[in-house]
Design brief:
The chain is mostly helical. 51% of the residues lie in helices and 8% in strands.
Amino acid sequence: GERLVPLRLLLHDPAHQPYFRAHRILWTPTSAILDRRGVAHYQSPGYLPPPLFLDMLHIGTARAHLAWAGYDAAAALLAPVADNAASALAAEALYWLGVARYLKERRRAPMMEAWTRLRERYPDSVWAARIPPNQEEGEG
């Protein structure tokens, strides 16, 4: 209730169609995280059980914070998800945690701390595959 405003739109309601088109939502349920200006920063299609739904909300809200240079707020939302090995979204949270740390400090070392954890814990995940090769090289 502090950070999010729920909105329920129905796929077959003609009055709701402009929202689906504007945010490129193709399926329901879809959770979309928009910023205060109505710009979408994250989408999650389909149903998620409550624990994963909460993790998804943290990641989505963090992504919106990143767009507004809210790096500390983003990291605070991502860290608990990244630390929860039982969460299917932990790998994604680690990826974005590395991004948040880099954007805050403009240094590779904080980013690589998160990305090294990502590679070690979830080496076969799509999120580990997104890390460019040779990121360990160089200073910073």
